[in-house]
Amino acid sequence: AAVLAIAGAINGNACKAALPAIMESIRTAQKWPEKMAALDFIDALIKTAPAQLAFRVPDLIPVVSEAMWDTKKEVKERAYKTMEQICQLIVNRDIERFIPELIKCIAKPENVPETVHLLGATTFVTEVQEPTLALMVPLLDRGLAERETAIKRKSAVIVDNMCKLVDDPNIVAPFLPKMMPGLQKNYDNLADPEAREKTKQALDTITRVGNVVDGKIPEVRNDGDISVVLGKLKEILSSKYATYLEKMGPVAEYIAAMAGQLIDEKESENAV
């Protein structure tokens, strides 16, 4: 009840301050009821601050995915339901009807080939943002590693088609270390010329979109990160309020988190 009360009372822009501890709890808690409480907290934020939490979807998906493989049945089932709620925050008409299948693939990797086949027939026209990639990239990474050449080829085609709809290199940058090695390995090893050609097209596209130069993946620019904003805040305030900043570190971090959330939202608006 206390967890839900806090989640219900928290300012939506403070999600960024609250979630690191919640995600750490899901990952490392020794007692399963603690993980359940953390998942409850996320569910509550989805209801009270959906707009703000939508920006945290790329952070949440990997953590909740891990919980879907928890050894405790209750945690697995709860995490699955939370993942369904998180994915409701993803705005992309091209994949929205496939979201249930994409979630199933996280819990059951054996579904990957079938889901890749389904997505392979899709025409992508909607601009692709980070939340969409956060859900799709784990599937595509597994698809590129499948034994069947046809699945490797279709995965490469999906990567190619989706990444053409990414406007900002910073959006795709966090996912390049996951996608590029699989594509490069397939390009080097596939015997089928047509499959190799499709893989080369996908590599060329993500190299161009991701602004990869000489094989070097650029660093992700995180202007809204708490540490970045906190540093700027201290630069501005230290001359007059250094003593206060030392005494009130958690308050400064909380302010930085809220400012970081607003920076994330503003950058998204500017990109549109």
Short overview:
The chain is an all-alpha fold and 272 residues long.
Write the layout of secondary structure elements.
Elements: H1 2-9, H2 15-28, H3 32-48, H4 50-53, H5 57-67, H6 73-87, H7 99-107, H8 112-120, H9 130-145, H10 149-163, H11 169-172, H12 176-189, H13 193-209, H14 226-247, H15 249-271
Describe this structure in words.
The protein has 272 residues and is mostly helical. It has three domains: 1-89; 115-136 and 147-221; 225-271, no CATH class. Helix content is 73%, strand content 0%. The chain has helices at residues 2-9, 15-28, 32-48, 50-53, 57-67, 73-87, 99-107, 112-120, 130-145, 149-163, 169-172, 176-189, 193-209, 226-247, 249-271. Helix 5 (57-67) packs antiparallel against helix 6 (73-87). The longest helix is centred in the last third of the chain and has 23 residues, at 249-271. It is globular and about 65 Å long.
Main attributes of the structure:
272 residues, mainly alpha, 3 domains, globular
Succession of helices and strands: HHHHHHHHHHHHHHH
Number of strands: 0
Helix % is over 70%
Shape: globular
Q: Quick check: average pLDDT?
A: 91
Number of domains: 3
Strand content: under 5%
Number of helices: 15
Distance between the termini: 39 Å
Which stretches are low in confidence, meaning pLDDT under 50 for 5 or more residues running? none
- Rg on CA atoms, Å: 20 Å
Structural class: mainly alpha
Q: What composes the largest sheet? A: none
Protein name: Elongation factor 3 four helical bundle domain-containing protein
Keywords: Repeat
GO cellular component, one term: cytosol
GO molecular function: protein kinase regulator activity
